[in-house]
């Protein structure tokens, strides 16, 4: 009979001490999730992030979200006073589908905690909150133009030209990709010109303190988003894994830039889906020549400096849409497919939550071959789950640790649980 997994109980934030010890001196901690709509993934990531910030001095959280929206949150949590009303009001900035990913009460609770923590820190030491994603082409262009016009500098001309080039497609960047697919004219030169202009200015004017440097950094980052978003939408039209690679390479480039901004001793927490943070080389993604943030981070920063934590569950509920752009729904997640990773954990733990460390489980015989590992996106149809929601994975190599939550609840989106009704009971297990 195969040896059992070596697991540890997972009941409260105190039980995270084992993984905190395993993280050691890693510079980057990648925190995954098996869906974008499960309460427990957000709750446990928040609990671990708080401990990393308080006990190990981590400087920022970077999430699978758009740069402009996340930077608005970043600016708010670094203020001395609360000037944004409430965290729930602040998160209304996430108004593009899927709004529930960051417009939820779980994130609101984290935003409140971050602001409270930052009030006791000097401006240079305040913890940041940033977006790693590449989707916000139009919003980022608007932000660059606003920045250039405010400063009245040499980037205005380039920013205005790029703005005019994309303006006919502002409602839908995918329409831009379709429009330029069969012609030689596109907006690639225009967005690259903006980025070059901002980088020239950054080289000429380098503010002494981090809060001032951050504003110039944000403008340059928005220009970088526009450059890579233009590439992303054109690659998406061609199909295959090219657009995925553009997106995750952008995430890694952004993470490196943020680490450089905060200095050589800075440490980062990343929140993203398991498919981004679990090393792609140990999944069937590799057969499609797809890379991801987890792989790139290990390759570029060194495996010992990156600690990746996967999440998963056996069954429960999730917030998702039945198709792209569809209204959000609370959807029942069925019991995991037989002999999948989640099914085996459910059987081994007798339906209790558990923490696994890969270093303790690499020699377990049943983990010597790839296992199906559930992945739920913002679009979810449980009736088809067995055909498309499992990623073959070498679990102990893909992650450094794994948090298993047997039964899960759906996330608490602000649109479903409005502020007028008050925040729901988020943490019955205690923080």
From TrEMBL:
CDD domains linked to this entry: Ere-like (cd14728)
Domain of life, per lineage: Bacteria
Pfam family, one: Erythro_esteras
PANTHER family in the record: ESTERASE, PUTATIVE (AFU_ORTHOLOGUE AFUA_1G05850)-RELATED
Protein's name according to its UniProt entry: Erythromycin esterase family protein
Protein's organism: Hymenobacter ruricola
């Amino acid at each position: 009979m195969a040896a059992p997994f070596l697991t540890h109980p997972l009941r409260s934030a105190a039980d995270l001490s084992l993984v905190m010890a395993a993280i050691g001196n890693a510079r980057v901690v990648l925190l995954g999730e098996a869906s974008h709509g499960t309460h427990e993934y957000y709750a446990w990531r928040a609990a671990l992030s708080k401990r990393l910030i308080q006990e190990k001095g981590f400087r920022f959280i970077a999430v699978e979200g758009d740069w402009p929206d996340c930077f608005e949150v970043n600016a708010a949590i670094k203020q001395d006073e609360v000037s944004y009303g409430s965290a729930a009001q602040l998160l209304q900035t996430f108004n593009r589908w899927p709004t529930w990913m960051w417009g939820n009460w779980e994130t609101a609770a984290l935003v409140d905690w971050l602001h409270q923590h930052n009030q006791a820190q000097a401006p240079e030491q305040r913890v940041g909150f940033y977006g790693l994603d590449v989707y916000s082409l139009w919003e980022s262009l608007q932000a660059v133009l606003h920045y250039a016009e405010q400063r009245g500098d040499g980037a205005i001309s380039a920013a205005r030209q790029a703005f005019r080039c994309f303006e006919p497609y502002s409602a839908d960047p995918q329409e831009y990709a379709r429009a330029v697919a069969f012609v030689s004219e596109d907006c690639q030169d225009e967005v690259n010109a903006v980025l070059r202009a901002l980088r020239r200015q950054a080289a000429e004017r380098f503010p002494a303190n981090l809060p001032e440097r951050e504003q110039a950094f944000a403008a340059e980052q928005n220009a970088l988003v526009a450059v890579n978003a233009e590439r992303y939408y054109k690659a998406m039209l061609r199909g295959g894994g090219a657009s995925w690679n553009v997106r995750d390479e952008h995430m890694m480039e952004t993470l490196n830039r943020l680490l450089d901004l905060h200095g050589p001793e800075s440490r980062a927490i990343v929140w993203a889906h398991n498919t981004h943070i679990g090393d792609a080389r140990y999944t069937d993604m590799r057969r499609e020549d797809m890379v991801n943030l987890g792989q790139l981070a290990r390759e570029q920063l060194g495996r010992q400096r990156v600690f990746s934590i996967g999440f998963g569950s056996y069954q429960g509920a999730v917030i998702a849409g039945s198709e792209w752009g569809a209204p959000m729904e609370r959807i029942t997640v069925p019991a995991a497919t037989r002999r999948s990773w989640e099914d085996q954990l459910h059987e081994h733990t007798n339906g209790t939550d558990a923490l696994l460390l890969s270093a303790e489980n690499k020699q377990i015989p049943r983990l010597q071959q790839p296992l199906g590992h559930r992945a739920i996106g913002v679009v979810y149809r449980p009736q088809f789950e067995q055909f498309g929601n499992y990623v073959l994975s070498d679990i102990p190599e893909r992650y450094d640790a794994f948090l298993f939550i047997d039964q899960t609840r759906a996330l608490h989106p602000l649109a479903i649980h409005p502020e007028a009704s008050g925040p729901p009971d988020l943490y019955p297990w205690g923080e």
